[in-house]
Design a protein that fits this description.
globular, single chain, disordered C terminus, disordered N terminus, mainly beta
Length: about 725
């Protein structure tokens, strides 16, 4: 991708020459038009992130642009226009780095480089608390000393932890070995006395470059291979596997160095292309729904490649900074200066994912800086893409438990994290799936998790495959201390006073009485209203259900007549209940009911409705259809937080219910002086880090303007649409 920059950001004595050269490069027709008195030429400079120099594009109308297709100004090495890559993170020459984090310490396990033919005989480890300062942990595995079956070509290690042990996978004499230790810094011992994967097992490829990925459920998978990419599930002992279970995952362009990481339920297989001695050595990736594929190569490849002074960038690994949706890629490049495929150095760069989950190109000129640990009020919006109707429960064990509607409407997922920010990368577990037919077989919507009398309960709405709008409310129960463990038991449907369309139940306890509030259709009324009733068990109501609000205001009746998704917060002597109104497009919004804490909650007159929505779409922040919220707090209980969903675009094609792009977001709920909640507007999505561009400046620090004498350039404004 190019960055378009103002012409004035480049030194004038050079840019005048470049612009003159650009005019000569125009097509004959456009050059003739440009030389006329009444036809200006629009020129844009652009500077590629690789620092290769000044590019130019031109337009005769400021709308259709043509790239002139070459570098017009090639900066010299060391000049202010050539971007300098950050220094390597490890001293000397080290290649094939595997980066990992255990506890609060990062580790890099590289190949010791510097000999033609890659004849290294041992492995070292490096540790760091901050990704900047690295400590040499010494030799952790020495082939001549520690192995009986290989003494040369110690290459490309990887590490994983299971069962309190650390398992180190490596290449030796073009076989894959495994070693075990009690510490990530070793020393490691060979438990097999032979290769884990012998080169004779797969004669049409090299058995090198192992990598192990451990999934959320503890299953471990081994990947390896040069020329072909093989994969297999490891046995529970981490040092054996069924040879018959080996799969070939080789994607187009694959050469070596496979690596797998997982984010938001998606598996990423990445690898190196070209030969490691080739300056074009680079990293590409594919995605899949399983650690064993199939994987589909992404169109936006490669993600890591040579750039400016950086050559041969590849053989990588990826690590997630604990508790954050922040990732780092470790890789090697030719040593600067004078490096080659035998003299490589280890580097780190940020790795970022786009909102759609694709991997963005890596900027090899951007250093890694470890920002402060997430605070309880630190998160990235959206916290989770494509998760609607979010519900968060902060439990006494210090964990935030999260569940929401998934776009497929076919299951209930659960995850937990110590901070809200960590929910974006927390492991997810499917705790229940829809039935094939009958009750609970379609439209699995709006799960909520609650802890009641020592047990966990999930309330959710579901339809029938035979009658998809036969939506009713159901309950699951789990007696385990950790709801991600144990068995979820179906407690069945909550029977209301009459049988009709029912959804979005929530529950709360007030002054010793437990209540259920939900949305239901009450014929002959159209749409849904909110009802409240006392509960006699966590899965049943007692007595008469009472309507406390129905969609009788104009803003509650756009698209559909809707009052739904109640959520309650008790503060300052009052109960505040939000609810969602109108269709689930950009008109979706939050209303508010208020009751005194001493009032009879079963009396409709106790509840006062705000005449206007309290939270609605806001074009200024590009947030549309905010609603279906829940409330939580910081762990100290001092700050209230609202969790909700919204889209970051206004217009939806087709039925809004079929659109998957409602995303989970969070923002602090503030309070007015009179004790009422101040919702504000839905905040904008968290922006990506700004691009950093190096410019030439004078002694006062101001950008140097170019000498454009003799060149006619028409200025363009922000309103021009350019």
């Amino acid at each position: 991708m190019k960055r378009q920059l103002p012409i004035g950001w480049f030194p004038g004595k050079f840019i005048s020459i470049a612009l003159t050269s650009a005019l000569l490069a125009l097509t004959t027709t456009d050059r003739a038009a440009a030389e006329s008195d009444d036809q200006p030429v629009w020129l844009f400079t652009s500077f590629r992130g690789d620092g290769d120099g000044l590019h130019l594009a031109y337009s005769m109308d400021a709308h259709i642009w043509t790239d002139l297709g070459r570098v017009f100004l090639k900066p010299e090495v060391g000049s202010k226009l050539m971007r300098d890559p950050p220094p390597p993170v490890l001293p000397g020459v080290n290649a094939d780095p595997h980066i990992a984090v255990f506890g609060d310490t990062f580790y890099i396990y590289p190949t010791t480089d510097g000999t033609e033919g890659w004849l290294s005989t041992s492995f070292r480890a490096w540790s760091s608390p901050d990704l900047v300062n690295w400590k040499d942990e010494g030799v952790i595995l020495d082939l001549p000393r520690d192995l009986t079956w290989a003494d040369l070509r110690a290459w490309a290690p990887a590490i994983a932890t299971q069962h309190g042990k650390y398992y180190y996978y490596y290449s030796a004499a073009q076989n894959v070995g495994v070693a075990v230790a009690d510490s990530p810094a070793g020393p490691f011992k060979d438990p097999l006395g032979k290769p884990l994967v012998a080169k004779t097992d797969f004669p049409r490829m090299q058995a090198i470059d192992p990598m192990v990925f451990v999934d959320d459920d503890g299953s471990a998978f081994l990947y390896w291979g040069q020329g072909r990419c093989k994969a297999v599930k490891l046995n529970d002992d981490m040092i054996s596997f069924d040879l018959a279970g080996v799969r070939d995952l080789t994607p187009p362009g694959y050469n070596e160095g496979p690596f797998v990481h997982k984010r938001n339920g998606r598996y990423y297989l990445s690898w190196s292309e070209f030969d490691t001695r080739d300056p074009r050595y680079s990293v590409a990736y594919a995605t899949g729904d399983s650690p064993l594929g199939p994987f589909t190569k992404a169109p936006d490849n490669p993600i890591l490649r040579q750039s400016g002074l950086v050559k041969g960038a590849g053989h990588h690994s990826v690590v997630q900074i604990p508790g954050r949706d922040e990732w780092v890629i470790a890789y090697h490049r030719f040593r600067i200066p004078g490096g080659n495929g035998y003299n490589r150095e280890t580097c780190l760069s940020p790795l970022r994912h786009a909102p759609d989950g694709s991997i963005l190109p890596v900027d090899v000129f951007e250093p890694v800086r470890l920002s402060p640990v997430n605070s309880p009020l630190s998160w990235t919006n959206p916290i989770l893409p494509q998760r609607a109707d979010p519900h968060v429960a902060l439990h006494t064990d210090g964990w935030y438990y999260f569940t929401a509607t998934v776009p497929e409407y076919d299951r209930i997922e659960l995850r937990r994290a110590k901070t809200l920010g960590e929910l974006s990368t927390a492991g997810v577990k499917t705790i229940w799936r829809k039935h094939a037919r009958g009750p609970m077989s379609h439209h699995i919507w709006a799960p909520e998790i609650h802890f009641i009398d020592g047990k966990w309960y999930i309330y959710f709405a579901a339809g029938r495959a035979e009658s998809i709008w036969h939506i009713r409310q159901y309950v699951l129960e789990n007696s385990s201390a950790n709801p991600l463990e144990g068995e979820w038991i179906e407690k069945g449907e909550i029977k209301m006073n009459w049988d009709s369309f029912t959804l979005d139940a929530t529950t709360f306890e007030h002054r010793g009485t437990r209540y259920l509030v939900w949305a239901q259709n009450a014929p002959p009324e159209r749409g849904t209203a909110l009802f409240i009733a006392e509960m006699d068990t966590p899965w049943s109501i007692a007595g008469t259900q009472i309507c406390i609000t129905k969609p009788d205001l104009q803003w509650e009746r756009i698209g559909h007549n809707v009052n739904e998704a109640p959520a309650l917060i008790h503060r300052h002597g009052r109960l505040f209940m939000t609810y969602s109104a109108s269709a689930t497009d950009a008109n979706y919004c939050l209303g508010l009911l208020t009751a005194d804490e001493n009032a009879d909650l079963l009396d409709p007159k106790s509840w006062t409705k705000s005449p206007e929505p309290v939270f609605k779409s806001n074009p200024a922040t590009s947030q549309y259809g905010p609603g279906h919220n829940s409330f939580t707090t910081t762990p100290d209980g001092k700050t209230d937080i609202m969790i909700y969903h919204a889209r970051n675009y206004e217009h939806i094609v087709g039925e809004p219910l079929n659109n998957p792009d409602r995303a989970t977001r969070a923002q602090v709920l503030k309070w007015n002086a009179d004790g009422t909640p101040r919702f504000g507007v839905p905040v904008a999505d968290t922006p990506p880090p700004p691009a950093q561009i190096k410019v030439d400046t004078d002694q006062a620090g101001k950008p140097i303007s170019p000498d454009l004498s003799g060149i006619m350039i028409s200025p363009c404004s922000r309103g021009s649409g350019v």
